[in-house]
Amino acid sequence: MNQAERINSFSYIRAIACIAIIVLHTFASASILFGDQIGVLTNAWSRAISNVLMWTVPCFVMTTGALLLEESRKLTYEKLFKKYILRILAALVIFTMVFRGFDMIMDGEQVGIGILLSWIYELFTGTSWSHLWYLYLLIGLYFLMPFYRKIAQFSEEFDIRYLLIIYVVFVSVLPLTNLINLRSGFYIHVSTIYPFYLFCGYAIHKGIIKVNQWLAVAAVFFSSCLIVVLTIIRWTDSIDVMEQLWGYSSIFVVVQAVGIFALFDKIKGKGSGLIHKFLLNIDRCSFGIYLIHMIFIRWILRYMSFNPYKCNEIINFFLLIIGIFIISYFCTWILKKIPILKNIL
After folding, report:
1. From CA 342, how far away is CA 345, in angstroms rounded?
2. 278 within 8 A of 286, measured Cβ to Cβ
3. pLDDT single digits (tens) 262-316
4. Angle between helices 56-68 and 133-154 (to 10 degrees)
């Protein structure tokens, strides 16, 4: 792939993942707020829709890995801190403040030193709005990026494959024994799944891991079907321990995300037409959309008490998701016109 083709394929996956994030958070928020007002099966299907979209963040991380672990890309410490870490940190500071202010206004709290202290507490402890966890994740990955790049640069292809297998076995497969109340005593000392996604995106893009197109399609199809079926079983039979089956370290989500990323990575060509331009424009605003969209979800579902399950659910959710996406996109587009925010969003 040449540079233009690579950027297009990654832009497409970021754009589609951005839209999928809105769908995920809309259904997840609706089921949390109104789950006790709807039937068990309706709640189960609603949860299944959000769970089957858990590939979104892993694909974002895989794209980051494919780009930043590339040996030809120069990444000095100055560039790392100024372009990447400072940007995410600034977004975190600004939007935890915005969200704290939003909650203060909507909940009728009084302005005072307590609001400032609670904002600082939420910023430091990561207890602001839940979707901001992704920013903390990015900051951690960026801090370690120089060492991740050295691993990628000086490792043989076998070493990368070995690293991926170790991550999958210890972080994704062994925890499945928790389903039968049997906790494994074996673990690796860097035991989160996200470095796996980082290196997996790099490995797929470099051809270290080759995923056949039809194998990728089958992986996405069967893992998605399993997530849907298992989610319905979990909620109809009230089996709480099954929640781990659609977390980011779930083997089903791993297989699903790898398959989706591999399919997009195979896209070649410079791209043209309305869909191409549409996806590129979404990609340019994807970070801002990710940050902003929860304001409208919370406002409409929680504070306006809009229950999308009433009357025609399909039309309600469709219009809600489309409306939130359009408003979030244009808000981001406008905010990017402000010089300070342009480099953040």
Report:
1. 6
2. no
3. 999 988 767 678 888 999 999 999 999 999 999 999 999 999 999 999 988 999 9
4. 40
